[in-house]
Structures are given as C-alpha cells and as structure tokens.
Amino acid sequence: MSARSLGDLPPDALEGRRALVRVDFNVPLAEGGGVAADTRIRAALPTIKYLREKGARVVLLSHLGRPKRGPDPALSLQQVIRPLETLLGTPVEFIADPVAGVAATRRLPRGGVALVENVRFWPGEETNDPELARTFAALGDFYVNDAFGTAHRAHASTEAVAHLLKPAVAGFLMERELRYLGDALQQPKRPFVAVLGGAKISGKIDVIEALLPRVDQILVGGAMASTFFLAVDFPVGQSLVERDKMDLAKAVIARGGAKLILPRGAVVAPSLARAAQRREVPSDRIPTDCAMFDIDQTTRLEFRAYILRAKTVFWNGPMGVFETPPFDQGTRAVAEAMIEAGKRGVVTVVGGGDSAAAVRGLEDKFTHVSTGGGASLEFLEGKTLPGVAALDAA
Ligand code: ADP
Ligand code: MG
C-alpha cells in the first residue's frame, strides 16, 4: 500500500496554492491545559516547512482528544498555537470556524500558516460526513495527509476530503511510516526478528498471524507470554493472563514451531508495590502467590543475541511493566540491543503506543519509531488504511 508523495508534486502545484494538511496534533495535555509534549508537533514540521519553502499557504487540520458532544474548550487546538509558532518561528492564524474561515485562508500570505479548530468538534468528522468534508475541502486547493496515526479511521478530514480535493498526497511523515512499516517489513533483510510483548494477546493476535510467515523469529515477552505459559501447562500464579485465549495461544505455538521463542525465565513478585521481594524464576516455576512482571536476565541476554544477529528488527509491546521500575529492565534491554544493532546497520522499527513511550527521547537512535499506535498494527496486519487508500496512487 503506497501513495503519491508530496515530494512528487511539481513546484507550480505548490507555489501560492493553499495546502490543506491533515496533521496529528493529538498531543498529550498538561493538567490545567497546555501542551505537555510537543513530539507530535515536531513530527509534522518537515512537511510544513517544505510547503512554506515552496511558497504554499498552509492550512492545518487535526483532532485533539475525544470531545464527547461538540466543542469542549479543554480540547481546543488554540492551545497548540503558541508551541507551533515557537517551533516554526512564524505567527500562526487560528481558524475557529471552518465555514467562516475560508476568507482567512485566502488572505494567508505565501508561506503563511493557519490552524483550524479541533475537527472532532463537528459531529460529521467521525461519521465521514461528505458535507463536513466539503467544508474542509473549501479551505485548500490541494490535500496532504501527514496524520498516519488516524489513517486507520475513515473520517471526514482523513478520508472523504481526500476524494474531494486533488491532488491528494502523503506528507513526509506519512511517507516514512509507509516506507518503514511497509517495504522494510514486507521485504525485510534477513534474519528478520520480531519482538512482541505488551499486556494482551487478544489485541495482537492478528499481528502475530501476519508476522509469523514473514519472520525468522518471534521473541515473546510481556504479560502476553503468560498466556502462552498457560497454553503449555506452566503454572502462572497471579500473572495477568487471558484464560479465554488459551486455545488461540496453543494454535500459535503449533503454527510458530521453532520460530516462536518464549521467555526462559521471569522476574516475579507478590505485587508491583513489593518490588523488594522480586526474584527470578524459570518460566515453569512461577509461584502461586506471585505474578510475572518482567523477563529475566537469561531471557534478556538471549533476546539480545537474536537482535544482534538480525538484519531487520521490529518491536511492539513492552517486555514487562516498564512504567514501574525495576520492572523496566527487560524493556530497556530490548531497546538497548536494538540501538546497538542499529549502529551496525540493522533496520530497527518500533511500533505501538506504549512501546514508543518506552523509547521516548531515543527516537533518533532507531531507524523508525512509528507515531501511530493502532494504525501501525493494522498496517502490519495487512489491513487497508482508509486514509491512505483515499490518497492518489503512487
Ligand atoms: P503497545 O501500546 O506498545 O502496543 P500494549 O498496549 O500491548 O503495548 O502493552 C503495554 C502494557 O503492557 C504496559 O502498560 C505494560 O505495563 C503492560 N505489561 C507488559 N508486561 C506485563 C506483565 N508482565 N504484566 C502486566 N502488564 C504488563
Ligand atoms: Mg498500548
């Protein structure tokens, strides 16, 4: 699945024209308002800066949070204006009403930037309403989608509008996502190792199924591993398991064969709060009164060795409860091994919301850290992303 890129548009398609750009400014908010982390704003800068340099007039669309019914001042994109102005070094015009805002977009100078209010303030956004899409389309002369994180949703600002406003192309961030989650993992340099963890098998089963035929190894960690332990009759104590997914786990074990590598041992404790009582046990010896909260040292070294022997590594899902040190060690060990492998030219890709959070601040040490949680997984599963499908074909 690929789309025509912004970089392919000739200069006269950009110069003086209004670019309607769907970005992902769904930033984390600070308590009491304001932007808590500007990672997502920064991620959109290459596309915005390129358009400005080419003399386009830039009109940005985004959602922010999940407004329940209509406008919610706490979720206004107004609070993104300041950080965006600082990062761009130019004033940004705020368009509170997309209908009345058309005039403002026409007044924008070449290289000028405007940001429209939260698209989810209008009920038609999430129903992919053609009427709302027409309203959005009137704000630009061509369309750029740089919001990979919402590309798996058919919404008015991601899908319907792309049919109305042509050309409709992928921004640079979107292009990167498609390249690294697409080509790099569809035609991987081998050995191709996937590291999967996280809380549940249920949300990841389609990813496992999609990856199994393509990978050389799948290294399993996280709470997901305990459901596999259950499937091979190991006692799991108080570990987080999905008993109703045991048969699914059995089927994956049967199909995966030697490709599927389960942890050899676990870090267990009576509870997260009683970390002082933690110890390492072999995977078939998890005590009745304890839960597995991380992979043990032996497993970390084994996973590290697999990662360093690989040519392509994809990682989704923390190896343990990384939010609560010292149970972050397995997750950190995988991150460190991937960073080291990356220095040797291995392609390293991280996908998933919590996994991306676990490597925050280290993004530039990986080949690619996906900005799309759900979207990156759906893409890997081979599903069509409506926001990509609606763009012009490459
Ligand atoms: P991602 O968002 O990267 O796809 P998930 O949402 O699937 O990852 O899983 C992340 C969560 O899994 C984290 O909150 C982490 O604490 C939890 N987790 C990982 N290992 C364990 C474990 N052994 N027991 C309980 N929770 C775990
Ligand atoms: Mg998650």
Instruction: Bin the strand percentage.
Output: 15-25%
Mean pLDDT over all positions: 95
Helices and strands, in order, run as EHEHEHEHEHEHEHEHHEEEEHEHEHEHH
Radius of gyration, CA atoms, in whole angstroms: 23 Å
Written description of the protein model:
The chain is of the alpha/beta class. Helices cover about 35% and strands about 15% of the residues. It is built from 14 helices and 15 strands. It has helices at about 40-55, 80-90, 100-105, 130-135, 155-165, 170-185, 205-210, 225-230, 245-255, 295-310, 330-345, 355-360, 375-380, 385-390; strands at about 20, 55-60, 90-95, 115, 140-145, 170, 190-195, 215-220, 260, 265-270, 280, 290-295, 310-315, 345-350, 370. A 6-stranded parallel sheet has the order 3-4-2-1-5-6, sandwiched between helices. Helix 4 crosses helix 5, helix 8 (about 225-230) packs across helix 9 and helix 10 runs parallel beside helix 11. The longest helix is centred in the first third of the chain and has 15 residues, at about 40-55. The radius of gyration is 23 Å and the shape is elongated. The N and C termini lie close together (about 10 Å). Adenosine-5'-diphosphate (ADP) binds near residues 199 and 318. Adenosine-5'-diphosphate (ADP) binds near residues 316 and 353.
